[in-house]
Amino acid sequence: MKPSRTPHGISRSLDVDEESRRLLVQSRFVRFVRFVLLRGFVMIVALTVAAVTHASDRIGVYARVDKVVLEPNEQAPQRVQVWGVFAIADSRDPNAYRPPARGYLYYMLPPNAALALREWADLQSVAGTNQIVAFGSRWSKTRTESRVRKADELPASPDVYTTDIGMRKIDAHSGYAPVRSIVDFKP
């Protein structure tokens, strides 16, 4: 086909070639932008997952509760003994828990007594069921650390009970280290 002249003196075949090149460049540019955006998105997701994976665990105690004893009585409790196996948050490392220990935790009511009493009732409801639970807070304002007392130790100097988001039931099949340590605990 012989190129024809336009009023501007440009060949139509050149117009087609120019248009093809322009579309090719646009197509490559669009693919490049998509590639960069997709890669950027993947990197953001990867960094977010990495950050979440390494985030600190806020739970103060993971436990398998055997029994709960309210003191001085169930009608007006001021203190609680929580018996069972416990993995307590390590105050020196925001991602670690101490090895599991059998015994009891001894707490007194915190300033927000109503919330603590509800959690103590929740702990009573799971006592003896082998249900793994999480409660308390690693990042409490009171900055008290729970201490597992031996079964033969007399109750004295209770720790201040810390609240966070309530007692939660935890799947015993979890691969999370403090949960596994309680499930696998052998005295």
General description of the model:
Strands 1, 2, 3, 4, 5, 6 and 7 form a seven-stranded mixed beta sheet that branches. This protein is elongated. It is an alpha+beta fold. It has two domains: 1-55; 59-183, no CATH class. The protein is built from three helices and seven strands; from the N terminus they run αβββαββββα.
Tag the structure with descriptive keywords.
187 residues, 34% helix, seven-stranded mixed β-sheet, 3 helices, alpha+beta, elongated
Name the shape in a single word.
elongated
CA-to-CA gap between the ends?
A: 93 Å
Category by helix and strand content: alpha+beta
Helix content: 25-40%
- Strand content of the residues, in percent? 15-25%
Contiguous helical run count: 3
> What's the Cα radius of gyration?
32 Å
Total count of domains: 2
> Mind summarizing the main beta sheet?
7 strands, mixed
